Amino acid sequence: MQSLKNGLNKVLEVICIVLFAFITIVGTYQIVARYVFNAPSTISEELLTYSFTWMSFLAAALVFGKREHMRMEFIADKFKGKAGIMLSIISEIIVLVFALLILVYGGSAITKLTVLQVTASLGISMSYIYAIVPISGVIVLIYNVINIIQFVSQLNGESK
Fold it and tell me: Could you tell me which Pfam families the record lists for this protein (predicted)?
């Protein structure tokens, strides 16, 4: 399980780095085109917005998977041993339900609704933009399952 998690971490890190580099290049191009050549780009604004959206959702899933997201430590630190592990499992289950209902189910619904909408400059279907919501939801679900399995094995190891 840990090798799957490490592989997924690496893939997401590379994708986020590539998207960040792309955003930097397109942003620089947009500034140079507008202020140096006085010829603003018509597509760079959309490219930046949609690339940033994808990068944000993928980075959020990555940070969640690494368990480096913001948490209320003052509550979690009060529970040690089995109680702390149980609290972690409960929080993972809550996030799993949220990811399943909001990100995967809701994201799939909005993606289907936007199939016929087209972006103004790029002329691509908005469903490609919204597809990141269920994609990131599935990634979060994968991380959830891995984390729950790890916590349950910790719980079983601690009870012996």
Answer: DctQ
Q: What secondary structure letter does DSSP report for 74?
A: H
What is the token pair recorded at 35?
A: 């202020």
For the record, the structure tokens of 151 come out as: 């916590």
Residue 26 CA: distances (Å) to CA of 36, 72, 119 = 15, 37, 18
Q: Look at the block and give the residue holding tokens 């944000």.
A: 56
Nearest to 84 by CA among 10, 154, 14: 154
Alpha helices in the chain (DSSP H): 2-35, 44-65, 73-76, 81-98, 107-113, 126-130, 132-159
Q: What is the pLDDT of residues 64-94, one digit of tens each?
A: 999 887 776 777 778 888 998 999 999 999 9
DSSP state, 125?
A: B
Tell me the β-bridge partners of 118. 125
CA distances from 8 to 15, 27, 30, 65, 100 (A): 11, 28, 32, 9, 19
> pLDDT digits over 93-110, tens only?
999 999 999 999 999 999
